[in-house]
Every structure is written in C-alpha cells, then in structure tokens.
Amino acid sequence: YPVFPQPILYSYFRSSCSWRVRIALALKSIDYETIPINLIKDGGQQFSEEFQALNPMKQVPALKIDGITIAQSLAIIEYLEETRPTPRLLPQDPKKRAQVRMISDVITSGIQPLQNLSVLKQVGQENQLTWAQKAIRSGFNGESFPLQTHPTLFQVSMADLCLVPQVANAERFKVDLTPYPTISRINKTLMALEAFQVSHPCRQPDTPPELRA
Amino acid sequence: YPVFPQPILYSYFRSSCSWRVRIALALKSIDYETIPINLIKDGGQQFSEEFQALNPMKQVPALKIDGITIAQSLAIIEYLEETRPTPRLLPQDPKKRAQVRMISDVITSGIQPLQNLSVLKQVGQENQLTWAQKAIRSGFNGESFPLQTHPTLFQVSMADLCLVPQVANAERFKVDLTPYPTISRINKTLMALEAFQVSHPCRQPDTPPELRA
C-alpha cells in the first residue's frame, strides 16, 4: 500500500465550505498542510491555471489526500468518514444518518449556494444583503423541524460542521438570530469545542492580521 | 420489526430534484405511491400547512418510508442505498464513491439551486434565462474533469441520477450543449435505460396531458 504525503487542504480562511472541512480534519485529528487560495486577490486565485488543473470547478475547498484530489465539502467529509471513521460524524443507524444528511443538504444546497461570492457579484452590491438574508432566513426557518430534535440526535455530526459556518455567515450578513433560539444554542455549544475554534476563519494561516483573534 | 406501508413520494413532475429520486426508486425496483405537489398551482401547494408539517423546507421531493419522512434528494438516495443496496448506486471503493459524490454535489449544490423556482422568481422574468444559463454552463464546464473519466468509473451511479435531470433543465433553458460532448453522450446512453424513462417528467401521474409523451 503506497505511503502518501500529508494531506493538503486548498482553503480560504473566510470560505464557509472550507471551514466545514477544517472542522472535520480537526475532529478526526488529521494533520494537514494548508495552501491558501485567496478568492479575491489577483482577481481570484481559484481562477489560476494551476488551481483549475486541481479543481475545474474553481472553488475551495479541495483536499489532496491518499493520492487523489476531492472537491466539494460534503464529498470530502464523507470520504474522511469512510476512511478515518474515528470519531464518527455520521450515526450508525441509517434513519439517523438520513436526518444528519438532510440537515447538511439543507445548508449546503439550500442556503449556502445563494450567498456564494460569485452569486453575490451577479446580484449586485446594493441587493447583496437583502438577497443573502432572505436565503438564510428561509433555510433557518425550515430547519426548525430537524433542528428541534437535533441535540438528542447524535453527539457532533456532519450537520454541525455545516451549521456553525452558516451561523457565522448569518452574523456576517446581519441576520437577526433571535427567532432561531435552537440554532443559536447549538452553535454556542459547538463553538466551545476546540475543533471548532482551531478551524475558525480568524485562526487560519491566511487570516489577515486585522481579522485575527 | 414493524411493517410499513408502501413508500409515498411527494413529487412534482417537472422538479429535477424529484426526478433524481424517481430514478433511484425505479432502478432499485421500489414500488411507491406518488402524491403530486404542484409548485405553481394555488400559489404553490408546497406552502400548504399540511405539506409544511411534512417538510418545513417547503420543497419537493420528500419521501415517506420506513416510518420516517426524508427530504433533500441526496439524503433520500443515500438512505435508499444504505437500506436497499441492490443495485448499488455508489461504488464500493471509497475513492470512487468520493468521485461520484463530488459530481453529484457539483450539480445539486453548484448548479441546481441557482435555477430553482424561488430563485428565478427573485431574479425576475427578463433575467431568468441568462441567469440560469450562466449557472449551468459554469457547472458543466467544471465537470469536464470528473465527467471525462466517468464512463469507466462505475455503471450507473448517483451522479447519473443528478446529471440526466440537469441536462433536461439545460435544454429547457436553451443551453447549447455542443461544447459538452461527454455530457451529451452519457445523457443519451442513460436515457435509453427504462428507469430513466419511466421516471421522466413527461410520464408522471401529475404530468399535464399536453406535456405527456
């Protein structure tokens, strides 16, 4: 069996999709190297020929691991779960797994894509805040059902890896979180864990000094 | 072990996310009942109190199965895969599974959300076509890498269940498919299979007579 070098994560400190993967790597105690891809500098480093050869979707995160490169945060997390199962990020019962995947998908395909950098650019500066807020509120409302049962569902799951970065985005887009007490409570509990702290946008190799904490 | 009634799929004939699940059910020979949710009629039947109690995200598809209700197409397909593994829609090798999930995620979180009905409404009638075309082209371009290797990857996979409905949407939004010969070829091969035909929007219980084929 070939020995592969340390995994490399292509990441942007502020990308919520990158943060999801950073939490998974931290929880599973996987050592890795970060190669920062600045989505704004030089017109977006994700558009460089070098990076496109790695991920033709021109998006972060991408993870080089075990001799392959995987893009898309959930595909990466599911791969880590299948190859490094400790600690588990998905329950063992298929019904509970379905619930975790459902919450994850609501965030990754229902909310986040609508407040992606490339979409916000198209929407235009003056409409960005309203647009992003609408997407987040609509998703958070809908989540009340699965999230109400969430705390008893499973300890820390893939859904949490999606939730925390999404809440941070909600705060960035000035969404009032008062109507979502369950989400706020879960977020607070999770943010007390080390894996969520070391992976935080304010503590990455590419975090600008003025945003460090 | 309790005996559950026949699964119920809440579906809209034209919804590409519903179509993904219909293909999975057909491939796995799972009998089910369809309850049509018309996303346009009555201001959108997905907004009814009755349906919201089932899926607070107010979206189709939702599948009632084994005593639970699952929303989000990929969560549903992964559940079917875990509980009804024949025929497999995911390869057994984790690296190949990652590739299938990556292609699936590119479509379900990179392309489709941007041409969702609710988003197109916000974008406005006059901009819809350009907006949707841009999202589809950008995704199809990026896919060239995984899709080039796709035919040798695995027989019929979850990625195919995402691809075929997305190609149909591309045609609906008048995207010229000439630049994507691999996608067109895979799509044509798949559309020859019965499971892709019986699940097609033109053959559903709620397909209007003038759109039947």
UniProtKB/TrEMBL annotation, chains A, B:
Keywords from the UniProt entry: Cytoplasm, Isomerase, Phenylalanine catabolism, Transferase, Tyrosine catabolism
Cellular localisation: Cytoplasm
Chain ranges of the GST C-terminal domain: 93-209
Domain of life of the source: Eukaryota
Catalysis: reaction(s): 4-maleylacetoacetate = 4-fumarylacetoacetate; RX + glutathione = an S-substituted glutathione + a halide anion + H(+)
Alphabetized InterPro entries for the sequence: Glutathione-S-Trfase_C-like (IPR010987), Glutathione-S-Trfase_C_sf (IPR036282), Glutathione_S-Trfase (IPR040079), Glutathione_S-Trfase_N (IPR004045), GST_Zeta (IPR005955), GST_Zeta_C (IPR034330), GST_Zeta_N (IPR034333), Thioredoxin-like_sf (IPR036249)
Known EC number: 2.5.1.18, 5.2.1.2
The protein, known as: Maleylacetoacetate isomerase
UniProt source species: Ursus americanus
